[in-house]
Amino acid sequence: MKNIIRRVTFMLALTASALLVGCATKQASTTLYDLGPLRAAQSSPALPAVSIAEAHAPAWLDSQMMFYRLAYANDQQPRPYATSRWNTPPVQLFVQRLKSRIGQAGGIVLAASDGAANMPVLRIDADDFTQVFDRPGQSHAQVRMRVSVLNGRTLLAQKTFTAQAPAATADAPGGARALADASETIITDMMAWLAGLPLKK
User: Fold this and answer.
1) What is the pLDDT confidence band of residue 81, given thresholds at 50, 70 and 90?
2) 102 near 191, Cβ under 8 Å?
3) Where are the alpha helices (H) located in the chain, listed in sequence order?
4) CA-CA distance, 98 to 180, in Å (whole number)?
5) At what angle do helices 172-196 and 90-104 cross, to 10 degrees?
6) FRET partner for 19 with CA separation of 20 to 30 A, picked from 5, 53, 111, 168?
7) DSSP secondary-structure letter at 112?
8) Distant-in-sequence, close-in-space partners of 122: CB < 8 Å, separation ≥ 6
9) Which letter does DSSP use for residue 38 in this model?
10) How far apart are CA 135 and CA 130, in angstroms?
């Protein structure tokens, strides 16, 4: 009888442990986001052939974490979502989308290591890529990218692009979509700026 009780107690303990592990796993599951599929082609002026160097971001932003700020509480503190992540650091997602958009517009883009001599090189520095809560239940995306155009070590042009987009929902999915929208706005503006530079086309 004692053996039966011990076995039942052991089985109950195993079941409880399995349930706890299952719950912990479920709670710790992470949702991954990117910038979504490439949107329909937009009309774009002729672009120069460019190389794109490896992008840079500050240490806190150079990861897969999705950050938000509470402007009404402490806007100096970027806070990461607990279970939501980018599938790649956001500056890399941005550069990949820029390459896709340039190619979609008929432009030529190469990695800096593959660029031809005298081909202008774009260097992109991410200064911000966060969801900002103006108040509880209302937020917007804020993206700021600094772009430098170089020929060797000579700086040909530099400009900082900033865009905001409202989030439809005050959560990670809403923030991810708004950040994708703000990124598209910056890329459109960036391509128009590049097309207007006195570079060889």
Assistant:
1) very high
2) yes
3) 2-28, 90-104, 172-196
4) 12
5) 50
6) 5
7) G
8) 50, 51, 52, 53, 147, 148, 149, 150, 194
9) P
10) 15
The residue among 135, 141, 146 whose CA lies nearest residue 167 is 141
pLDDT at position 23 over 70: no
SS3 per-residue string spanning 115-151: CCCCCCEEEEEEEEEEEEEEECCEEEEEEEEEEEEEE
CA distances from 42 to 90, 106, 162, 178 (A): 23, 11, 20, 19
Q: Are the C-beta atoms of 99 and 53 separated by less than 8 Å?
A: no
- Residue 21 has a CB neighbour count (10 Å cut-off) of 10
From residue 40, alpha-carbon distances to 12, 14, 18, 105 in Å are 57, 54, 48, 11
How many CA within 13 A on the CB side of residue 178? 27
The residue assigned the tokens 């937020």 is 139
Around Cβ 184, how many Cβ atoms within 10 Å? Answer: 20
Phi/psi for 23 (5° steps) reads -65, -45
Return the pLDDT at 47: 86
* Sign (positive or negative) of CA dihedral 145, 178, 138, 131: negative
pTM exceeding 0.85: no
